[in-house]
Amino acid sequence: MCRLFALASREPVSPIVALNALNVMKEGHDGSGVGLFLHDLGGPFADMKDAPILSGIFTDEGLKRLDEFMHQLGFSPKYSLALTPQTAPPLGTPSRGTYLARAYDTPKNWATMTQEERELLLLSSRLELRYSGEEHQDMRVFSFWPDTIMLKEVGDPMAIAEYLGLDRPELAAGRILAQGRQNTNYAINLYACHPFFIQGVCTMTNGENTAFVPIREYLESRNITGYMGYQSDSEVFAHIAHYVTKKLGLGIEYYKHVITPLSEQELESHRDRERLLRIKQLCRKLIIDGPNCVIGCLQDKTMFMVQDRKKLRPGIVGGKPGIFAFASEVCGVNAAVPDRDQSQDFQPMYLDTAIVRPDCQEITICNQLDLLPRLH
Amino acid sequence: MQSARPITPSTLSVTDLPWQIDWDKDACTLCGRCTTVCPVNAIELGVFRKRQLATAPSLVEKTETKFSVFYGIRQRTDPAYRCVGCGMCNMVCPNNAIKPVSKPEAITHRFHMNRGGQPRTRGGRRNTNESLLDQLKFIRISMLTDPALDAGRHEFELRTLLGRVQSPEQGLTAITENGWAPPVREIYPLVIGSMSFGALSPNMWEGLIMGVTYLNEELNMPVRFCTGEGGCPPRLLRSRFIKYVILQIASGYFGWDEIIRSIPEMVEDPCAVEIKYGQGAKPGDGGLLMWYKVNKLIAAIRGVPEGVSLPSPPTHQTKYSIEEAVAKMIQSMYMAWGFRVPVYPKISASSTSMAVLNNLTRNPYAAALAIDGEDGGTGAAYNVSMDHMGHPIASNLRDCYLNLVKTGSQNELPLIAGGGIGKNGNLAANAAALIMLGASMVQSGKYMMQAAAGCLGTEGDRCNICNIGMCPKGITSQDPRLYRRLDPEKVAERLVDVYLGFDMEMRKTLAPLGRSTTLPIGMSDALGIADKDAAERLQIKYVV
Asked: A363: which strand partners?
């Protein structure tokens, strides 16, 4: 079973804190891989919040092709953080080249573009790079988004951290998602490693989505750029979160109503019955199944944790104003935020969404039986 | 006494018949129950002459030949009176002295089943045991990350949607702007397939309705029952139980005068309206209620004279094409109930199904598409239609589902699959397989007749005389002497048993697959088959 750890902090924190928390939970996972999502960055990136940052792994040839491609699109490099390991990789990790996070100045026509057009340009550029990299085996691109860095690699998380020097101050971030295992359900592929990212929305999941194939078919048939990949059954959680919040314009409170809607009896006495029943029907193909704990971060820095309909996976949220940790096990939270009030820790059950809003002030519990925000 | 039997081209011997009566003279009590109960008069009192040699005990007296007479059962060899294998003779025999024995290799009678130029008509099914659905296996058992679900303990959402579901974007706009949205019913995914009042006896109908009501009101299982084309009893139309009923309209419009008149007095809306364009068992052919079955009651409900055969024309005579049917019939049916009742067509599975589907996806009112495969049953049809016309359901349904996936409307237009589900007794496994191939729900009539009412028909051409109104169990008869054999209460009880058993088997199928939160519609990764061509055709895994 994967172990997940995520952090929401007002002050940027080193990703080592998250990886250390994963390490504490290591009894439960095999340490076969690492996936990191860093958002709300500190260090030099803090001064360029609007500059889209491209994260990925490149061979020398790949770097050249990247420069050419980005130049054609009108993006010019602004600041680069290149992790080029000088030592031999840890056992089981291939030697791949440069791990790059590069901030770009936006093209000239950026100012005249709508927000939607900008987001689409960033997404389609990332996808083109990904396709081209897959074809030539020289680029792996994980994200292209302002204030966001992603990293994925095979191998033990701590060994990778040492190998790549992830304790660098440039990588400190206010929102961190970390996961410590390669995928198991389908063929192993770096793109199958959690967390999954699309246009500012990022999620990772511990579990197995048994409704994967019909959901994948449904998402692919939406004709929405970026609904692709699906090397992992968990990627659909990220895309559903994206679809619900960005395409349907619903708040995070509705996410759980889409993926694990209430039963008929529960809806019977719900004050939002009519609306929820309709949403359950409209989004029936997005209902997930199987044991799953989903942790995610939205574009506005809101972080959340939800469980499957039967709460078949562990998950806990705890912290103090200013810093909150989301983890598979309490020892992970203890490692990251030891000086908190443990009595305030919360383990979301089958109806709950635990939310830490952008102000990082408290954990908000949204129970599915609660009244929902109005639609507008 | 005649010197010899007249030999004509159609003179057959018992050995030419598919069912042969095995009668035990020593066990027979000569009570006569078997000859009374036989629905086709295949057996009659036989007076047999027997020669006996009386061997003399001494040399003085001579050995004599004596003749005696004994009574028993004689099987008739006229093809019109051939035994249909129903076995009622055995069921009533106090000594188990008589039974029909199947002899499938005897086919001579088939060449004589067209007396007077009238080809064989019958009720029943396709008469073959082959079933692709039975070959499908559920192979994706969660072994890696799952604590396996417990079919007995966990919550399972075995519900489906009947009705046009909008896209999430359209639907949310309708919610925020308070716009109209098509009616959608949340129902149990096994629907009792259309069997008309007329095809079925009043007792059978009553039993089914009672069972359905019990399932809904006592067990919280929203099971629905489709009427078939034969109208609906007026009291049912005006009762709250009509919400459990899907009313069918077909080309004969039988009973619709009464239905339309009752609309102002209805206290509840019916679940849905099904427009029948085709039937899997006899595609391209219309319905038929033979005159034997059109008694006073049936005639009154259907609004026709008594004792006349009631054919529904194969074509809807007011329509030119399916486009027109979609445009006119669906909309006018919607209007009849103020756009509160889902309306959908039912067609025979056919290589033209996709064209119908494409028309329906473009119509925002079409509530579903029911596709009936070649293994469906019927109360009356020409043998040739039943045996040779039609398309298997699996690939037809799969094609339609994948077409919906291509256009992104797989949640919007539910597919209802029928025809051959449970034909060999595997109701839940067949239903689950069809759901995973893409059906939102399945419908079955024949299985309900067999399991809930004890229909004797099998795929081995047994009984299959629903068409002549002589159903020995009283299921498809309109003769009170026959249908009083069927206790409606018992039918209701059995129907409830069938559904509860089905429900448990579904949960036992879905739990190992890790599915419980929603019905696994289109979960094709769970299916495998040991037939490479079939696997490729259905786009599922080939497993050996």
From this structure: A356
